[in-house]
Every structure is written in C-alpha cells, then in structure tokens.
Amino acid sequence: MGPKIPRAARLVAAVVAMGLAAACGGGSSAPAGTAASGDPAQPVTLTFWSWVPDIQKAVDAFNTAHPGIKVKLETITPGPDGGYAKMLAAVKAGNAPDVAQVGYDSLPSFLVNGALQDVTQYAKDDAAKFVDWQWQTGVFGDKVYAIPQASGPMGFYYRKDLFTKWGLEAPKTWDDFAAAAATIRKKDKSAYISTFAANQAPWMISLAQQAGQQWFRTEGDAWKVTIDNPDTRKMAAYWQKMLDDKLVKTEADMSNAWYKDLQTGSIVGWIGGSWGDAIIRGNAPGTSGKWAVAPMPQWAGAAQFTSASWGGGSASAILKGTKNPGPATDFAVWLNSAPESVNTLLSAGYGWPSVKDTSQITNLQKDDTVFPFYGGQNIWEVFKQADAAVATDWRWPPVSDALYSSLTDNAKAAVQGDGTLTDAFAKTQQAMVDQLKAKGLNVVTGG
Amino acid sequence: MVVLVAPFFVAFALFFLAPIGYAIYQSFFKLTSSGLGLTEPVLEFAGLGNYVTALSQEAFVASIGRVLVFSLIEVPTMVVCALGLALLLDSARARFQPFFRVSFFLPYGVPGVIASLLWGFLYVPQTSPLIDVLAAMGLPHDFLGPDTILLSIANISTWQFAGYNMLVLIAGLQAIPRELYEAARVDGASELRIAWHVKIPLVRAPLILITVFTLIGTLQLVVEPLILKPLTTAINSDYTPNLAAYNQAFGQADVHLASAEATLIAIMAFVISFGFLRLVNRKGNRAW
User: Domains of chain A (ranges plus CATH)?
Assistant: First the structure.
C-alpha cells in the first residue's frame, strides 16, 4: 500500500548505510557498535508488541531494509484493554518484548512501575526528527525512554449531506454546536449531533485540554493537580446543559450501538481524533462520500485557534529487560520516521505522524483510500492545523490509568443523574490527589 | 498409598495452594514512589495496609453490598428454575425427555463471555429485535438502566446455569426408589403432592449443593458486568468486588491491592457459604 517513491527508497538506503557506517565507527548518529548494523549472518532478533492495524507491513519493510535485525511482531490487546497489564507483567517476569506500543498518557505510569529502558545514548540525536511536544512525551528528567509515533489531533466529523439538507454549516464555536444540535433534534426526531461518551476518558480529557487550563503539572518536587479548574468547569457545565436539554445521546462511542447509529444517520457527528477516520470508514462504509471534517468548535472569546490530542498519542517504548537496546531504538526510530513506514501507518489509521518533516509523507497530500469517503476533501489539512494547535504544556501524571477509570465512573454517574458533570470532575480531582498520595508522591492542589 | 495420591498433592500444591499463598503474600506489600515518581519505586512491607485501603474505599464496600443484593435475587431464582425444570422433566409423562434435558443443558456449554455478548446484543436498542417487539407492545424495555441492569445480569446467569443445576437435581430425583411414588399413589397422593412431600425432601442434599454453588458464583460475579460494561453507564469499574480487583490488577497495575481485594472476596465467599451450610445443617440432619 505504501507508495514506492525513489526518494523514500534512497532514504531507506541511507539509513542502512548509516547503520553499516556505525559498525566502522563512522560519523553516525549512534555510538559505534550499538547501531542497527548487526551481522546479517547472525541477525539480532527483536520482539515488538503492538495493536496498530497493518503495522506488520511497516515491520516487514524494516526487516527487508535491515538484514542485521529481525523484528518479530506480536499483535496484542490494545493497552487500556489489558495490553499494558500484560506488558507490565512481562517486564516483572523478565520476558518482556524489546519494543512495545505505549500511549503518551501511560508512559509516566510505566516509568513509575520501572518498566522503561533508558535509551538516551542511542536516541539523543534523533530528537530533531520529531515534533517537539511529541518527542518530550518520552523524555523524563533528560532521559529518553520512548520514540513518539503519532498523536490524535481532534476534529469534528459530520454528515455534510444531512447538515446541508437541514440548512446547517459546520459549527465554528461551541455555541454554534449547541444551536446546530437543537436544530437537528427539531428536523429529525431520531437524529442527534453526537453522543456524550461518558465511557471515554481520553475524549473528555481532550475537551478539557482544549478548554484551557491543564490538569497536571510539576511544581518543584511535587505534582500540582488542577482538574477542578475554571476552564474545565466551564466545559463541564456546557455539556451538562447539553445533557439536560437532551441535545446529545449518551451511548458509548465505538460500541456496536454507536456504529449502528453512524450507519443509520441517528448520530450525524463526532468530535474525534485524526485516526477516527479509519473507524468511521470501517464501520459505516455505506455512508461513503457523505462525510466531511471541520476543525474542533472553539470557545467564544478564545484568543487563538485551539485544539487537543486524544489521549495524547502513542509511542514505541523500549522496555526494561531488553538485551538489545541499541537495535531496539533504531527500529523504533525507523518505524516512526521512515517515510515508507509512516505512509503505511497513516493509511491504516494510526494517527497523526510525529515526524517533523512531513514533506515525504505523500499520503498526506493525496490519499485515494481516505479522501473519497469525505467527498474528496483533504481532511489531513484540518488535522494538520489541529496538531499545530494542541496545547503542548499538557503533562500526564503517573496515574493515568486510575485517572481514566475514576473519570469514566464519575461521568457515568453524572450522565445517570447522580450529580452533575461539574461534580464528576471535582470528584476525579479528589480521587487523583488521594491516588498520588497513596503511591507516596508529593502533591499540591489549588487553582 | 502415598505414591498413589502424590500426583494429586503435587498438582494441588502447585496449581492451588501456591497461587493462593502467593496472592496472600503479595497482599502484604506495596510499591512506594517518592517526589515526582520518576525514579523506580520501592517494594515495602505494608502489613494490613492494603486491606485497610480496600475496605475504606467506598466503591469497594458498595460493590460488596451490590453482590449481596444480587445473591438475594439470583439464588432463589436459580433454585426455583432448576427445581421446576427438573421436576417437569422427571415426571414420567414428560415426552422427549432426553431432548429437553440436552436443550436445557446447552447454554451451560456456551462460554460466559459469549453468553454475555449474545445477551448484550439483545439488550442494546440498536441491535435488539427483542426491544422492538417489547416497545411495540408498550412494555418496559430498558435492560441497561441503573434499576434494571442487575436483573439483566441475573437473567444471563440463570439462562446459563439453570440447565446445569437441573441436571444435578435430576440425578438426585432418579436415585429415588420408584416404590415410594407407588406407595404415595396408593395412599391417594396427587402428582403435585408427591413432588412436594416425596421428591423435594429427598433431593434436599443436591438442593443445598446447588444453592451453595450459586451463592459462591454470585459472590464472584465478574464476566457478565465486564462484558456489559461498555454498553451501559450503569456499570462502573468497581461494580462487583471481583471486577474491582480485576480493575486494580489489570487497569491500574496495582497487584498488591488487587491481591488484598481478592483475598477479601475469598474470605467473604468462605464465610457466607459455610455459614449457610451451618444454618441448614443445624436441624440435625446433615446434608453435607
């Protein structure tokens, strides 16, 4: 699927050459003897755990280009559904894979659990290849532990045909969004503009991320927790009103019910990550050509265009216990920066590339699998703008798994009428402070 | 003799005692970080700290209350269903008995996850033909709401296990000497009276057995809520004690707290099931 362009091929050749040069102590980015060279006769074998669809193609391309390294892909359950637990257990048992798929949100938890390998000496010169905020997600206290893969900048997917039929335009602000939601309810009593996905913590977090003040930051030797802040409360009150006015559905996103509603036009919009394209295409193929993507609606009075990234994004982390940290790092860097790999992953719906220079990523300009579904719109333009407008000072705490379950539990309760969404975020704040303290970490709170 | 039972004891120690012992051992420790938590954590002895943490979590205590309510609903339902089916099939006039016996037993062969998925499709409005019919008839049809979800779960477990429990009772019924029925009939007893005064008292032991099995099963409820969780806002990550332990171990990577919770669940199941046995055995006729 990945287009074979001569330029990309040359780049691959260059990477291989660099590896070979490293073995001779040549001017490579990695120290001698640690790089991807290996010995084609006795290749280094690496194990890689991931759940990204179609990533096998990128791994195959790597293996072809690097005779000295043989990467074996093992497909696992997505991290939040048990994949992370499996990784942490494997690290504990001493049989972890060399490289694994870990979300930006979970890297701090992995670090706290002692599951990440410091690869600073192999990767320190690769920083320039990646978008800075994404690179920083794998860096803790000047040490590199993971290579960024992709983010999930947010946009608004909507049924353009139905919006046009009802005389609506893509909402520019959240007020427009509420007005459009009301119009849709009037025009078609079975249709909703979207669902409020109380099951989806990263989604709710991205709404908060866009609203303004961030939730976690470090102050000296302590974590400062500010989930219950004015901006998040504003966002929570907005969605509470949407729920009270019954302008949104309350079913879980990415569930069978939700897919069915996408197919039948009962749900006509979704504020989702850039990889959400593959989800809609895959689950509502019958609606091809009827969709479009607009930027995430903005808060009134916002100084500049702001978006967010769903759950941050995803990285290739080098796990503790690997016997080959050098080749593992080289693989992770290649997987996430070599154009032929990035092109393949982009079409498979892995997210927004973490590489800084996207001029080689031809699929961003023209993608015959993706664009026709959106009536020919180049949806990547929208996400490119969104990715540049992600608040980059967002920090994930080392308890994001607890954050997710606490937030979904509290939001589900609010959706059922047990308290409000504003309460839900306040309760989550308290739960996170307790959780951090229970782990022995220093915590300060405040606005 | 020792040689003959050795394989059993080795397997018993390896696959039963060792994991339980390890879980209990793990429950006395905790991982502690310091400062920002960016350095490797230290494993510390926590004494009963994890047990205190578990029992002071409102959600965990609420989940225990929830499975107790669930037991109150599910145990009588199960016993009545299983006994009803067994008596119907045992009555001599039942035709196609082997066919029905197998049909009732079949759901037991369906793995719990699959059963929950199947019922999940029947509970979700967008995919359920059942809900369309109920709605058309004007009957209540919200299977996933906060007030109905426990009943929906009870329905799945009853569907799954009633047939199995029925087989246990049928085995008991078939062991009853036929002469007793003849004697009862000679005395003028109707089929209903035979069932009530002869059959049921004589399957007391298997009845108690299935009650205890169901009790333990309900206290350890986990698969159904885990599978239905994505479909409803009424199930949270601490919905049942087992689900809370699962969430601690696999969602939040805290095996120590999870081990403490698992140990508490085991103690609870032990106390309640043996308490029940003591209660029914008090009258001097030991069934177990």
Answer: 6-152+313-371 (3.40.190.10), 153-309+391-445 (3.40.190.10)
Nearest to B230 among A112, A255, A442 (CB): A255
| First-residue to last-residue Cα distance in chain B | 26
Chain A to chain B Cβ contacts (< 8 Å):
103
Measure the CA–CA gap between A228 and A430, rounded to whole angstroms.
Answer: 9
Regarding pTM above 0.90, the answer is no
A218 lies within 8 A of chain B by CB: yes
Cα-based distances in Å from B74 to B162, B222, B225, B262, B280: 11, 14, 15, 22, 19
CB A210 within 8 A of CB A389: no
- Residue B252 and residue A409: Cβ atoms within 8 Å? no
Which residues have CB under 8 Å from A240's CB, separation 6+?
Answer: A414, A420, A421, A422
The alpha carbon dihedral of A91, A97, A101, A107 has a sign of positive
Structure tokens at B287: 């069934």
> What ipTM goes with this model?
0.81
Segment B68-113, tens digit of pLDDT = 999 999 999 999 999 999 998 888 666 788 888 889 999 999 999 9
Residues 66-105 of B with CB under 8 A from A: none
Query: Structural domains in chain B?
Result: 1-47 (no CATH), 58-281 (1.10.3720.10)
